[in-house]
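Format notes (please read before filing issues)

Several people have asked whether sequences and structure tokens are stored in separate files. They are not. Every record keeps both together, in the order shown below: the sequence lines, then the token lines. Line labels are part of the format and must not be stripped during preprocessing.
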Amino acid sequence: MGGDEALTSWQEIDLSMRRSALHLVWAPHRRLEKALFDATSELLSVTESTDDLNIIKLSTSYLALLNVVTYQSQHEAGTDRVQFLIMRAAEYEASVIPDPVFLSDFHRLRENV
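Then the structure lines:
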């Protein structure tokens, strides 16, 4: 969300990478992909076990995903808050409509000056 309270477009965190034969044996780039998959799976498990938003927002998985959105993605100039959305989709099946499964709160990037 920009400083003028306007919402910006969603940005997808794309972890795909062109694969080579070497990736059959050694693929260190997959660590971030695996970590995000695990954090997402764990967050969805937490949301199924409780309706308490405070417990959800203090879970390790929520905080890990918030960290990625805050520090590992690009933000438009003037953006002061971030939010993340988890979508369930089938990358190789174009007929499957993506399904939103979790929407975070807005979180400040920095203090207003």
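For reference, the curators noted about this record: Residues 30-49 form the longest helix (20 residues). The CA atoms of residues 22 and 49 lie 40 Å apart.
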